[in-house]
Amino acid sequence: MSTNPARPPFGAALCRLDDLPSPGSKGFVFRQGDALFAGFVLREGNGVKGFVDHCPHAGWPMASGPDRYLTRDKKFILCAGHGALFQKTDGLCVSGPCFGEHLEDWPVEVVRGVIRTG
Asked: Which tens digit of pLDDT belongs to each residue from 37-46?
């Protein structure tokens, strides 16, 4: 787990579950001084999964635009920089230059209809 001081603390509210389509994705950016933390959340039904917004191959952000982390068919996470595809369940790269690597987990959970850091 990251020791980034900008990483939000356990239990921090991100958004309401109803504000995120299913399937869908939403990105979040936090700053503290010079430190920056970026993560994104995926929703499937009532389940959510979070990842750090950082390509394991190149180190850049994953999305091509605001909240655009999924392929058009919403089956995979897409790195817009080089087209790598990642499984939504565990962040495993299944296609592209980082094949076999994983996105870093960002624990999140739904508590009373609100997505919070876990």
From this structure: 999 999 999 9
